[in-house]
């Protein structure tokens, strides 16, 4: 057994999956946590934090989870909507007047939540370090034109979504989204998740391990995908820099582990509450399951079925009809099933190739889903 931590007997198969992935080398280091009907039934970790396998992955190891960070951003937006401070169907410019420039007056908050706002990349070419400059990023987005008619198709807002939603949060609350999340969610729950990592936590970070380079011609990309990903020249090793870890990049630079991700996102599977605390009403939870767009996403190069922020069942993630999910570049993933009251989180350091590759996470989620039916 290569993993530490515990599982209930019912969910022992989840440990078997992670053990197998560590044994085969598919994983270098990873953690898995599962909540079922209000109880933690899996909390395991194993492997190493480095490619040379010299430093073990510990119970409190954290890593950059890439776009799994978006689930925290969605949660904050939903909390403000639940409190009546944010109308998800209102124009973004209601809260951020400068955003109305260049034909964006009609873009609604829900369009940003569902990646249909037409702003999948930056209108100016940015250097990676500029992602730490909030005013620079938001001013570029406020000034540019949408790249397609908003609301008509999905186009993954890989990095821009966090600035768009984060600026709306800032205009409403006066706080950065990282500050709001820490005060309103992470601290009340004791969740070890950070949007903007304090330097005091650096010793616990497992740096992400970049995926292998693709064979020539192995990956094809649409013009929109190229335009999106080249609008800021960043790569899989960008999180190795302290400036990245310390910044607030709410679509991509959250640091945590499976335990903290599962704890926070169990709010969704438990219909608005977890650990005896209520964060959302059941009415707002149901809004997550309302389809906002269902169609081909040329940025990701696959079918996309988006609810209010979270992804819904689609060919690449065949989850239940009342389940939602999201994942991160390289393979991290969290799945919430409302009917089963099941939350499954898988966070790792070794990245798979491709912006939406998550075969290892799917294997973990499937094992947990099977166990939940027993």
TrEMBL record:
<dbReference type="Pfam" id="PF00144">
    <property type="entry name" value="Beta-lactamase"/>
</dbReference>
<feature type="domain" description="Beta-lactamase-related">
    <location>
        <begin position="16"/>
        <end position="365"/>
    </location>
</feature>
<dbReference type="InterPro" id="IPR012338">
    <property type="entry name" value="Beta-lactam/transpept-like"/>
</dbReference>
<protein>
    <submittedName>
        <fullName>Unannotated protein</fullName>
    </submittedName>
</protein>
<dbReference type="InterPro" id="IPR052907">
    <property type="entry name" value="Beta-lactamase/esterase"/>
</dbReference>
<dbReference type="InterPro" id="IPR001466">
    <property type="entry name" value="Beta-lactam-related"/>
</dbReference>
